[in-house]
Amino acid sequence: MHSSVERQKVHFSSGGTHCAAWHYPGTNGGCVVMASGTAVTKEPGTDRFAQRFNAAGFAVLAFDFRRIGESGGEPRQVIRIPDQLADWQAAIAYARALPDVDPARIALWGFSLAGGHVLRLAARDGELAAAIAQTPLADGPTTARAAMRHSTPGAMLRLTGLMILDALGGLVGRRPILVPSAGAAGTVAALTTPDAMDGTRALDPDGQYPDWEQTIAARSALAPGFYRPGRDARNVKCPLLVVVAEQDQAVLPGPGLRAAEQAPLGESIRFPGTHYAAFTHAHEQAVEAETAFLQQHLLGPSADLVRLRPPRRN
Fold this sequence. Notes:
With 314 residues, the protein is α/β, with parallel strands linked by helices. 52% of the residues are buried. The protein has helices at 42-55, 81-96, 113-124, 140-148, 153-171, 199-203, 253-262, 283-299; strands at residues 8-14, 17-24, 31-35, 59-63, 106-111, 130-134, 178-180, 215-217, 240-245, 266-271. It is 32% helix and 17% strand. The longest helix is centred in the middle third of the chain and has 19 residues, at 153-171. It has 8 helices and 10 strands.
């Protein structure tokens, strides 16, 4: 059954500010809460998958983390992992209260850094029905060591200097020093692996999202290198699907596959290609597999018993 209602812009509170989100009303009681990686905003990072999940009847709540995109919060483009995890928890709470959603049928979907967040959140929230981690950052130290091979000593030194300056500036309230989210090897950017430069082509090939700012504060470039959410996989109680790209150099396929193996109800699918394969040549395979996973675990044999609450009226 397909939803005939257009998506709606909504906001929820987190950390003393508001997070902006798209709510796609659903028809089957299930809901997918979605976010994308690092500083990728909700539109390029989730639109194509969200539309397909919604066409299958699921409600979707796709949001921007605080200080990113249309969400509030200062200073802009600063990525703090604890804040992003708190934003996820606020989004889940908001989704559970939506009139078209059965709170027992919530799934998470995250890509890249947000895919790592999915592993951590699914380990903490025992009430989730399912979780999808698409090319997740499961082990930051392993990924960071591999990424260093695609930089140069000079570029690493310059980035380190900017990180220190930006961190010190942040202590006295200065505006962030911004660096590109991705760049070619040898340039000063948060990520310089060979597939890093594919982001714009994969996520915004037609230039539909001109407001997507592809920078992060230099102070934020270090934190993902210490993040190890894959270690939480053994505590994930809900069904978990990990999607990996076999030639992924941005987050590496191995840590994600290990997370799927360690999760009690984990499974994995893999596609040939690099970090953005699920948005490019493998998109149809990925979205079909993910939709089938959601149908199996959010609906199941009792799907016909779902009774939705009447829509909220303004």
